[in-house]
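Weekend entry, working from home. Most of the wet-lab plans are on hold until the incubator is repaired, so I used the time to fold the two sequences that have been sitting in the queue since the last round of cloning. Logging both here for the record. First:
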Amino acid sequence: MEDVPASPKTCPLPVRRHPWRAEQPCRDSRRRVDVADPTVTSPARPLKTPDDSRVVLAHIMSEHDTNLYGTIHGGVMMKLIDDAAAAAAGRHADGPAVTVSVDRMTFLAPVRAGDLLSVEAGLERAGRTSMTVGVRVTAERWNHSGPATEVATAFLTFVAVDAEGSPRPVPALDTSSAGIS
């Protein structure tokens, strides 16, 4: 191996020279490049709206879900958020999708046993194989007859996968209609 001067088309690290090619292109796995424009549709990549994948999950919180302070444990809400977001991502992708990251999760108000939690998830963005899902969580207080209170929001990133676990393309998203945020 010998050092090759770095240029925009080559890796800054040493690369192996091939007899038929002067330089080996960079194969840096940390560099992310979407080859296809995620807004372009084709018969292989249909267009969907956020409403096509919207999911609402409702759950009555119980004492089993509480922590030492008498409020619902954050991990219980995180699981419900991930479940709803995964369902929305899978619905958009027309198949399985896996959680890649929780980009942001904000707890806004405490939830108590007896509260009816509504977890609403919908697509915010669709790339070539990845999707960003927005989630809004509201609680109807069991002992209060007012409007529901927003208790949490989150944004998660998913990647659609095939049977072997490799990323696969997802439908494009019509961004003219609003998402969850």
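Second, folded right after the first finished:
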Amino acid sequence: MSDARSEDGPEEPAAEAPKAAPPPASVPDGGLQAWLTVAGASVALFVSFGWVNFFFMLLISLVAGKLFDSYGPRLPIAIGSVLHVFGLMMTSLTHKYYRFMLSQSLVSGIAPDLVPPEAGDRWWFDGGRIVVGRRHFPTDVQHLLPQVGFGWTMRICAFLILGLLVIANLTISSNLRHAPRPFSVMHYLGPLRELNFGILCTATFFMYWGLFIPFDYIVVEAIHYGMSSRVAWSLVPILNGASFFGRTVPNYIADKVGRFIVMLVMTSLSAILVLALWLPARGNVALITFAALFGITSGAIIGLGPVLIVSISPMSESGYRMGTVLAFAAVGTLTSPPIGGAIAADSGGSYTYTCVFSGVSFILGTIGLAALRVRLSGWGLTTKI
């Protein structure tokens, strides 16, 4: 008996493997460093949106997620900061199209995803919090171009981004212990064998398939239907500005009633707005109203998406799982504009079926999210998840 105990005794310490991350109970859910991270993440969001390189921003998530899981936020954010500013500075000097594509679309395009606003808050708050912030770069560029020219417009944007990224580098941190792990394709493909994760990837693809059609085509459609160029070019800043409210009120409600419910409401409203308001809109008032309302729902969708990923993922795997989901979003973002343009061209310049394409994509994404929520919590609407 005593021998058996003595044999069992030494084996217990050997059986304990070092953990890569603290258990969920150790998530502080507040504190000075946690809120500094939220502040830094909000600043990081200012440098990420308003550029045409959204495909690369999402696609590089495959690499960025792995870096964040292995090394924490500081190294990826530092790399992303250098690339972003360097890419824009090189853009300000270029006079050839291929150099513009390399510097702005590729180098500066992949950088923002190495500085993701969701990078830090998921490690400090139980379930994550949504951060708020966005720079209106289309508006800035539109006003600066005629005054200082293209070169200095890009440099001013780069200096602005540099200042913001200094703050992000100083404030964003992690409370987990990160250990580098060998790269494996199965890190990305393995979660796809989980039905819930696969449903979320598919739903995200359809949501992003429809999400950027209004951003890409609302200006040209408005001009096509008689809106002046000056007013039409203000529609995208209206979309971006309204997204501030989409990133605050819905996200606050999501922490109270559940993220999936709020996301389902936002995707459903997006489908309704596209099909019931944008589709028949011809006058200035209708188009401006659509831009403002869709800005709210689109802001909520972009803000809540990463939190849904974290909510169904182990904390130690949330980085590359987020990268996998955002890779699906990247494909949707890349393919939807040419599809929308081809539909409009085949319709003789009418954007009717382009709007329908966007609305149906939202409906398919909503169906996928609804199916996932039912799988996670059943049919009860009061279950918070």
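Plan for Monday: verify the second prediction. DSSP finds 17 helices and no strands in the chain.
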